[in-house]
Amino acid sequence: MQEQRIPIYQVIQDYIKQEISRGGWKTGDQIPTEKELMAKFGVSRITVSNALTGLAKEGWLHRIQGKGSYVSGTALNEGTRGIQEGRQAEEEERLRLIGLITPSLSDYFMLRLQSGIAKALRPSNCHLVVMLSEGSKKREAEAIRELLRMGAEGLIIFPLDSKTHNDEILRLKLEKFPFLIIDRYLTGIETHFIGSDGVEAARLAVNHLHALGHRDIAICSGMPLSTTTIEQRVSGYLLAMKELGEKINPALMLTDFSLKVDGGHAVLDGEAGEDDPLRRCVEAGLATAYIALNGPVALHLYRIVKQLGLRVPQDLSIVAFDNLSPSREFDFFTYIDQHEEEVGRLAGKHILELMNESGEQPYRKIMLVPDIVARESTAPPSA
Known about the structure:
6-stranded mixed sheet; 3 domains; 6-stranded parallel sheet; 13 helices; Arc Repressor Mutant, subunit A; alpha/beta; Rossmann fold; 16 strands; single chain; elongated
């Protein structure tokens, strides 16, 4: 028989209702403070506040800002009547909110990730609210605060930067609010995390190209090395080249440039200028194959190849991170499959568990093993 877990906010509400019903607290009595309830149940202030707000709406309590919560005069008559008898039915109908904060929804990677989360939440009474940080730490902090104001009981966060933590994320951790990080974990701060193994992903890309006969393999990121995601992939590239006995050519590590960004995602407009690092590398013929560490860079590189009158894969092979097509029927790029929909599904599953668990839980770090999907953009180098 499967164990049915009761949400912690409901445990707090049931405790208060029972104390009132048995006469432990009478009309006008002040109930324990938020701090006392936090200590008693081992939860965050936000969880306690949400529980008390719900009781106030039901008529059990009235709250006075800066003073506390008091037993309402209706709690022992009308409040106890329909509410207590129908509590289970009401709880089943009550919508619970879960927030997803992400830099953008501009590519198929993020759409698949969101789809996985939505599928995990579908059997529950939870609704997903999506807010975009759009490449701004300020917006990321505002999104966290707004979702909490809306009554979100759990957060899934795709952070902007892994090295400089947002204070709002630190506050969530300190207050033991249910949240988890996806895609790029935060360095120096332990949190629940779900993502794909970036080191193994880059190793798969290098090994695939090497097996085709490529030796001059470039790697390009199009963004600063400020996230653990990019750092992992570069580490995997270096590790694979070393394992294969190939020398590392610093000129083929194109990680010191950034594409134009608007609203948190790369903008691909117009032709690449002569000072574009990728164009210079392709024009000089320094590499026969490129590993693009994100989708926009792969598309930017493909445009450069066409702009210079070259062909993929006849003149140059490209491996992209993430599937750039809406479905596999339209695949052109050989890509690293990070199983983003499964990442999303696991994120949805785990945030529900965190919301329904009482007390502090050991942190979980889940790293999915990626795969490489060979398509048309890679082939042996031309003679």
